[in-house]
Design brief:
By secondary structure, this protein is α+β, with helices and mostly antiparallel strands. It is 55% helix and 17% strand. The N terminus is likely disordered.
């Protein structure tokens, strides 16, 4: 007796899900029906958000299930997501007409007529000047791209906060937040997007890096001069002191020059590399850029080799 009751419940769920005769079903359909049963339990318990999520999961496995589509539409309607509910009722109506199910088609049509006047809409105006100055303009409502064929037309939106954004390569992005109410009509005009300029800090950092590199070169040159003096006066031991040459002072100067040339060279190279990298990453015009940074350090030289491809 328990087995018969369970079988009846499963069959009823299958009929509610698909809206047709029950026969041997493929695995995806069986899995979708199981998810649908769980969604109905949550729906009846009042956990609408979780129920709607499971209805959507089941429909992803079985998109043509008319009963499941109607349940999702009703769930969204109860969640006050009227735009989404109308969209699901429209899909259910199309599927019911194709499956020759006039009752379900009629029910979906009545719900659409009832809810459509209550749906909030957003009109996104994109003036000609904006279109002409911003190539490859991408307009979105939240994460949904709005094609240019829908610009200037009413786009249905569920009640609640939404973000209208516009972006184009090489241009500063635009975003406007609106709070849609059921039945409300909202218009957002996209302004001219200003050119995105490269940031200033890379030029400053790069300039400091060049200055440090120049100082490193000067100390490296002085190091080579001192080394030449040491080589000239210290051919024999002890070093001669001709022309006021002082070995201790020369050695101290040589060590100082080497340390400063090395430190300033490495620091300048890093600063210059950071500046170039900032310029490369700061560009947003779709141009392919690359940079290669190679530090150089040795007994008589310190610096960096930076190659940039624009």
């Amino acid at each position: 007796m328990t087995s018969r009751a369970t079988g009846t419940a499963v069959s009823l769920a299958a009929l509610l899900w698909a809206g047709g005769s029950v026969a041997a079903e493929p695995r995806s359909t069986t899995e979708a029906q199981a998810i649908f049963q769980e969604a109905r339990k949550l729906d009846e318990a009042g956990d609408l958000k979780s129920a709607c999520a499971l209805y959507e999961k089941a429909l992803a496995l079985e998109p043509n299930a008319i009963g499941g589509r109607l349940h999702l539409a009703r769930c969204l309607e109860r969640l006050d997501k009227l735009a989404s509910a109308v969209a699901e009722y429209e899909r259910a109506e199309i599927a019911a007409n194709a499956a020759n199910q006039p009752d379900r088609s009629s029910h979906a049509r009545k719900q659409i007529q009832l809810l459509a006047p209550r749906v909030g809409t957003v009109v996104i105006e994109v003036p000609r000047a904006v279109r002409e100055t911003a190539a490859d303009l991408l307009v979105r409502v939240d994460e949904t791209p709005i094609p240019d064929s829908r610009w200037g037309q009413a786009v249905p939106a569920d009640a609640g906060p939404h973000t209208v954004s516009a972006a184009a390569p090489g241009r500063a992005a635009f975003a406007a937040r609106i709070d849609v109410k059921n039945g409300g009509r909202y218009t957002v005009e996209v302004p001219i997007l200003l050119r995105r300029h490269a940031p200033v800090w890379p030029w400053i950092v790069g300039g400091v890096g060049l200055a440090m590199g120049g100082a490193a070169f000067a100390f490296a040159y002085d190091q080579s001069v001192v080394q030449a003096e040491i080589d000239e006066h210290c051919k024999s031991t002890p070093c001669d002191r001709l022309d006021g040459f002082e070995p201790n002072i020369a050695n101290a100067r040589l060590s100082r020059d080497f340390g400063l040339a090395l430190g300033l060279g490495i620091g300048g190279g890093l600063a210059l590399g950071a500046g170039v990298l900032g310029l490369v990453l700061g560009r947003d015009d779709g141009t392919a850029t690359s940079a290669k940074f190679t530090p150089i350090a040795g007994p008589n030289v310190a610096g960096a080799l930076v190659a940039v491809a624009w």
